[in-house]
């Protein structure tokens, strides 16, 4: 039974919203259906804290699902956006800041010499697929079960994130022809991967190098290396979707951390610093196939939008080695504390983390693939999340998502979170 928080301003807004917005929201996971309650409507946020329209304060671990690596309303980012806005909000013509951002990204991300900006991660994934098909002259794509690459038709098969949360194997409205060329393989299964590569000539092998849309399920040792090797052998391009991991798990993303370098990379979230921006990039040879340098058509009225570029540049410029050290320490403290709190309450969980991301799976067994993630006790996860919200912690409202600690989370936030988590574990154990 969904918990409707009667007589609250959130409840009143939700009652109105459902008449004007499907499910009352503009993106499905926000509805909090998967954790058995109605959504929280946000009034404002600062640093690591979110305040709802009823005045409740939460330590936020959604952080806009990843872009806010410096927390909410960081003064330097606000200043950069305000300065850009004062000069005009969109031109439909190039700006100096786009060149600076492209240079900064190319400096950080090993596979990227050139990039094209888009407004969302979905557009970046859609465009990178077109480019891979054009570059190889092939049509087939390999994706992993539980991976989510945005809501483009061809990649919605067995997808994670909101589809996993709703338990949908595919979305109605996607023509069979759109997924006919998509081969889905279980994550972390070298045999299935080899067999698929023997049977098909792929345009691209697509992977989130650290999948985080079925909860966080890192690659088994050697799996990314195998992916690289098989892509090359197959004549396919290796495409990493680093929309979540990019600029978060290391300055150059999961590819820098793992040392496995893809041919093309889709980026999003942190690159826009909380405003709508994303990008795809690769070598000069590949990227020069994109129009107008080449014939692979892709365009966007708000691509490289000056406000988003200003926010992205300010965000990246503050991400130095010390920032990555602090984010890793925060993540580790939270993950260790979650493990200890669950063990003390006798609740079987698997806490999986990489710097800047973690997931608490309600499972007695290690989770290594989508089947394992789907076997988790989502009812228990929902009950735990409701108990966390009641104690001032804002978790991702689905088992199939990652938690996003930020650089604004202090030791006090971590302490308060772990205290709430322990009490919430005790609640559900009881
Ligand atoms: N696609 C995001 C979760 N992986 C959710 C985006 C949102 O609801 O804002």
In short:
The chain is α/β, with parallel strands linked by helices and 430 residues long. It has helices spanning 9-17, 75-86, 96-108, 121-136, 162-166, 176-179, 190-199, 223-234, 253-258, 284-287, 306-317, 321-345, 370-374, 378-390, 411-429, and strands spanning 42-46, 49-52, 57-60, 114-118, 140-144, 182-185, 202-207, 237-242, 264-267, 278-282, 350-354, 357-361, 393-394. Residues 27, 29-30, 65, 161, 213, 401 line the site of (4S)-4,5-diaminopentanoic acid (HOZ).
Structural summary, described in words:
The protein is 38% helix and 14% strand. The chain is built from 15 helices and 13 strands. The chain has helices at residues 9-17, 75-86, 96-108, 121-136, 162-166, 176-179, 190-199, 223-234, 253-258, 284-287, 306-317, 321-345, 370-374, 378-390, 411-429, and strands at 42-46, 49-52, 57-60, 114-118, 140-144, 182-185, 202-207, 237-242, 264-267, 278-282, 350-354, 357-361, 393-394. Helix 3 packs parallel to helix 11, helix 7 packs parallel to helix 8 (223-234) and helix 14 (378-390) packs across helix 15. The two termini are 19 Å apart. Bound molecules: (4S)-4,5-diaminopentanoic acid (HOZ).
Set out the fold topology.
Elements (H helix, E strand, L loop, with lengths): L8 H9 L24 E5 L2 E4 L4 E4 L14 H12 L9 H13 L5 E5 L2 H16 L3 E5 L17 H5 L9 H4 L2 E4 L4 H10 L2 E6 L15 H12 L2 E6 L10 H6 L5 E4 L10 E5 L1 H4 L18 H12 L3 H25 L4 E5 L2 E5 L8 H5 L3 H13 L2 E2 L16 H19 L1
Bound molecules: (4S)-4,5-diaminopentanoic acid.
Percentage beta strand: 5-15%
SSE pattern, N- to C-terminal = HEEEHHEHEHHEHEHEHEEHHHEEHHEH
| CATH class designation of the largest domain | Alpha Beta
Average pLDDT confidence is 96
């Amino acid at each position: 039974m969904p918990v409707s928080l009667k007589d609250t301003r959130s409840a009143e807004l939700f009652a109105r919203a459902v008449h004007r917005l499907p499910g009352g929201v503009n993106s499905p996971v926000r509805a909090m259906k998967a954790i058995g309650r109605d959504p929280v409507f946000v009034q404002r946020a600062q640093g690591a804290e979110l305040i709802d329209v009823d005045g409740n304060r939460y330590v936020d671990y959604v952080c806009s699902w990843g872009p806010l690596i410096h927390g909410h309303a960081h003064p330097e980012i606000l200043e950069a956006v305000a300065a850009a806005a004062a000069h005009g909000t969109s031109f439909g013509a190039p700006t100096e800041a786009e060149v600076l951002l492209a240079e900064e990204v190319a400096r950080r991300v090993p596979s990227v010499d050139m990039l094209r900006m888009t407004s969302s991660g979905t557009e970046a994934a859609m465009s990178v697929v077109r480019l891979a098909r054009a570059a190889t002259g092939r049509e087939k794509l390999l994706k992993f079960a539980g991976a989510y690459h945005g809501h483009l038709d061809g990649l919605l098969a067995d997808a994670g994130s909101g589809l996993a949360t709703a338990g949908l194997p595919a979305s109605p409205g996607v023509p069979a022809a759109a997924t006919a060329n998509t081969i889905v393989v279980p994550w972390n299964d070298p045999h299935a991967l080899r067999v698929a590569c023997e049977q098909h000539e792929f345009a691209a092998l697509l992977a989130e190098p650290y999948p985080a849309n079925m909860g966080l399920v890192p690659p088994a040792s050697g799996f990314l290396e195998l992916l690289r090797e098989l892509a090359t052998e197959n004549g396919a391009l290796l495409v990493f979707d680093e929309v979540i991991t990019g600029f978060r798990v290391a300055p150059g993303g999961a590819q820098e951390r793992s040392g496995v370098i893809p041919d093309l990379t889709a980026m999003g979230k942190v690159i826009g610093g909380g405003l709508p921006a994303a990008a795809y990039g690769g070598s000069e040879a590949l990227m020069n196939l994109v129009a107008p340098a080449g014939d692979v058509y892709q365009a966007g009225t708000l691509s490289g939008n000056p406000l988003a570029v200003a926010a992205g540049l300010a965000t990246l410029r503050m991400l130095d080695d010390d920032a990555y050290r602090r984010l890793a320490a925060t993540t580790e403290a939270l993950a260790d504390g979650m493990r200890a709190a669950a063990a003390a309450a006798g609740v079987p969980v698997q806490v999986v983390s990489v710097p800047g991301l973690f997931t608490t799976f309600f499972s007695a067994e290690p989770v290594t693939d989508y089947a394992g993630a789907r076997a988790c006790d989502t009812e228990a996860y929902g009950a735990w999340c409701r108990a966390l919200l009641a104690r001032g912690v804002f978790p991702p409202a689905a088992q199939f998502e990652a938690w996003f600690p930020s650089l604004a989370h202090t030791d006090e936030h971590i302490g308060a979170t772990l205290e709430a988590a322990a009490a919430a574990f005790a609640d559900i154990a009881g």
